[in-house]
Amino acid sequence: MNNVEDPSQLCAKGCGFFASPSLRNMCSSCYCDYLKETLLKMKRKSSHNDSKQQSVVDSSDKKDANTTTATSTCTRCDLCKRRVGLMGFKCRCGGIYCGSHRYGNEHSCAIDNIRKALQREALSRQLNAAATCKADKLNCRI
């Protein structure tokens, strides 16, 4: 009969909110903080162990690593060189463009031009085939 959980149990961290036994007798916010702390401790331990196992890296390798991360974080429009950040639009041609150059006709996209040329060619073939196959149904026409 004592299977019913006590709903008036307070957080073990002492913040004053109600706790849950499934969250180690903590409230939800304290439990999230607890999880973050444990993850940080685990990362610190793993990075500490990795640093012991790794050999000394040349300073030139460090410079190369720093330059690659710096260039990847700063994204700019391929046409106007405006910073786009997270709002950059990636085109099928592989470029990243700002909001005003995101459409293919704005940045002369090679992929769109090829696709349009193929569509025009297919349409002209269809129209020529339809015009040649159509028989004149009125024999009395001059």
From TrEMBL:
GO terms for molecular function: DNA binding; zinc ion binding. It comes from the Eukaryota. Keywords: Metal-binding, Zinc, Zinc-finger. Signal peptide: none annotated. Residues 5-39 form the A20-type domain. Residues 71-117 form the AN1-type domain. InterPro entries: AN1-like_Znf (IPR035896), AN1_A20_ZnFinger (IPR050652), Znf_A20 (IPR002653), Znf_AN1 (IPR000058). The keyword Metal-binding applies. Gene3D superfamilies: AN1-like Zinc finger. SMART domains: ZnF_AN1 (SM00154). Residues 44-69 are annotated as: Disordered. It holds the Pfam family zf-AN1. May be involved in environmental stress response. This is AN1-type domain-containing protein.
